[in-house]
Design brief:
Layout: H1 2-31, E1 35-44, E2 48-51, H2 55-58, E3 66-70, E4 73-75, E5 78-80
Antiparallel strand pairs: 1-2, 1-3, 2-5, 4-5
């Protein structure tokens, strides 16, 4: 009986530790949105913005007009469909968050029949 109780405790500790690890990894990944360094002056209607080395976005002494581009879709050396505005963190409260995308409808004071956008 004592052996079974000891095994149960060790299993609980392992499972508890895995839960903490999963929570820590989730917290870290949600704070860092998908971002890529692009040349602001390279926009091409068909391709988007040209990707450049991250050092171009970290240093003011660059020959490239580098800027962080968030949540775009990468295709080869180009990225498009994102924004230069860093997305807001998702709220943990009820009602959700648009995360900087989409249209938020409803809520306090939004009358019936409102288009919301």
């Amino acid at each position: 009986m004592a052996d079974a109780r000891g095994q149960l405790r060790s299993g609980t500790v392992v499972l508890g530790g895995m839960g903490l690890l999963a929570a820590a990894l989730t917290a870290c990944s949600s704070d860092d949105p998908d971002k890529r360094c692009v040349d602001r002056d390279s926009y091409n209607l068909a391709k988007g913005y040209k990707l450049v080395a991250d050092k171009n976005c970290k240093s003011a002494k660059s020959s490239v007009n580098g800027a962080w581009y968030y949540e775009g879709e990468k295709s080869g050396d180009w990225v498009d469909g994102g924004s230069f505005t860093k997305p807001r963190k998702a709220s943990s409260g009820s009602g959700g968050s648009t995360g900087g995308h989409g249209v938020s409808r409803g809520g306090f004071g939004s009358g019936k029949g409102s288009s919301g956008g």
